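Researcher: Structure prediction, please.
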Amino acid sequence: MKRHLIIIILTLFITQFLSAQDNNDILLTIDNHNITKAEFERIYRKNNNKKTDTVDKKSLDEYLDLFINFKLKVFEAEKAGLDTVQSFKTELNGYRRQLAKPYLTDKNVEDQLLKEAFERTKTNVRVAHILIKVNQEALSKDTLIAYNKAIKIRTKLLKGDDFGKVALASSEDPSVKINEGNLGYFTAFQMVYPFESAAYKTQVGKISMPVRTRFGYHIIKVIDKKPDLGQVKVAHIMIAVPRDAKQDVKINAKQKIFAIGDSLKAGVNFVKLVNENSDDKASAKNNGELPYFGIGKMVPEFEKAAFILKNIGDISEPVRTAFGWHIIKLIEKKENASFDELKPMLKNKISRDARAFKSRNAVISKLKKEYNYKLNNKRLSDFYSVVDKSIFDAHWDVLKAGKLNKILFTLGDTAFNQQDFAKFISKFQIQRNPLSIQGYVNEMYNRYANKQVIEYEKNHLEEKHPDFKYLMREYHDGILLFELTDKLVWSKAVQDTMGLENFYQEHKNNYMWGERYQADIYYCANDKIKKKVQKYLKSEKTINNKMLLEKYNKKDNGNLKIVNGIFSKDENQIIDHYVWNTGSYKENDKEFIAVHGQKFEPVPKTLNEAKGLITADYQTFLEKQWVESIRKKYKIIVNREVLYSIK
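Model: Predicted structure follows.
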């Protein structure tokens, strides 16, 4: 039994070995460059447009010929040094950054974030909060003080103290004086991610544990949750009332808005009243219309009045907000979109939101394990004494860390020493509020180490992912091919006016006009005018169209219209009918048409008349010459046996 298993294992191993060996067989040699069967087959299968999976010798031979031409052009571009030009490097690096993105994100985390965000967009949450400020990089003792303070406040609230009063007494959010901590309704992406998550996870009427964000600790009370109502587009008439307005101003504004409301009920046009009365001059220019908005985008009173309106065209009663009085008209409603419709927008928002770090951090954590990341904490603590408060106004000198040159951490086969980190701190120091030195150093180290982990992975993508390696090679070769072909073929054909002229003279009989007809088409108002025009055209050798127009259009400019031109077959239905007796044109009871002109025999088109086509053919000619010349420069050996082994 064991022997049987060993034979099976050996058979599988040998099969895989032979398959890999076969795939690495040399198919083609161009001078000293060996090209494997695998490289050719991958591009052949990718670009072969045949729906069938069968491979025939003819298609292999044809594609190999194209492949050789492609490779020769790339070699020529490299010999010309085009791959060393900065513009080439910049463009290739740009493509590399884009291609690398999927390899630097955690697909599972990304999918979870997308689904989570979509589900949250279906619901609006109304919360109040109390903020205890603490800096993100604060020392653990300062963080603990802030946390304990938040816990004491929460305990008061759980005992029944009024949230608004406690917020006024304790919250360090400046807006608390206006809203007593009440933030109104919001949905996904309208708050920082940790705050949003806590609000959605807390039940209505409950108070959360302290939630840490970059602003500090928040105690969140969830007041309400309701289904998202989509978006509305409204127009409004606004009578502004300044915050510090006197009583008589407030009374006048109220009287004015209610008078406008009475006018609307009496049938006066809404847009007319907007233009005559609205103090919102920006929206008044657009008949009072505002952009689409959803919950959390407008002040609560305005929002509530807008979403209550049911039917398009409905108009609200006067509504008071902090800005004054409004009358709102519903213009359009937009229902909630599906997941597939929202997915591109959600992905874009996630990429610019703090939650994007969840995916990135998951990747970094995985890579640290994969590459056996090790930090020497003692070497990091050396920076606590050499970094001083000058760092907080961007004046720290890297020379202060001049004696620090030991290994700080290792990643894979690479060691990063203290000087690398010191230079990073010096380069990225920015003016900021003073923190603890230790907190600042730790924060900067995390940024530096994470950056190096990602860079390390980027530098090893070709080794780890063959698909990425092949794609990068395709972009590399494609850019080089474009640059050299543009220089020697496309741009040359456009700029080489003498070469283009010579090419045209040698091949001008390839650009012939077909049989054409130079015609005047006479559109007559009635049959009587048509017959008179036809009689004139038959009797006169020299036709005077100007005289005809003056004669028949003296009383009415619509009596006669003349269109002239040179027409080929299938270019004008009337000419096709009257001259070549083709097409489906039929003169109806309201059309009275006469035609006069002469046929032109086929002649070559001028260079200007066919310049686009001639230029394209000249480019093909130049490319053919170029390929013939470079094929003579290189020794090309093809292993047909390996080629035809592709099935």
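Model: The chain has five domains: 2-86, 123-227, 231-334, 371-461, 513-600.
Researcher: Thanks, that helps.
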